[in-house]
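Lay summary. Proteins are chains of building blocks that fold into shapes, and those shapes determine what they do. In this project we predict the shape from the chain. Here is one chain we studied, written as its sequence of building blocks.
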Amino acid sequence: GMYLFFGFLFALVVALFAVQNSSIVSVRFLAWGMETSLVLVIIGSAALGALSAAVLGLPRTLRLRARLRECEASLRRAEEEARERAVPASATLQSEGVVGHGPTREA
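And here is the predicted shape, written in a compact code that computers can read:
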């Protein structure tokens, strides 16, 4: 919900910044170089940054999902055990002689 909203907001800001800076620039990396639009450099850099963050965060996300599945399974087992141990209130009261027996009259 909220992450999606801020993700779209960030993408909008990057797109507006890129469109306002659309000149041709020379890009060099090690022995590689090219002339391209600054818009492509900005959007490409933002996309590579987002992809890097997602890839680096993937192991943690997978660990957390596995832990969540373990906790949910443990909770289900605990709930099943609690239901098996639960005794209806009327059965408890009957065993204690509180209900289920009519009034007794001694003559």
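What the prediction tells us: The two ends are 75 Å apart (CA to CA).
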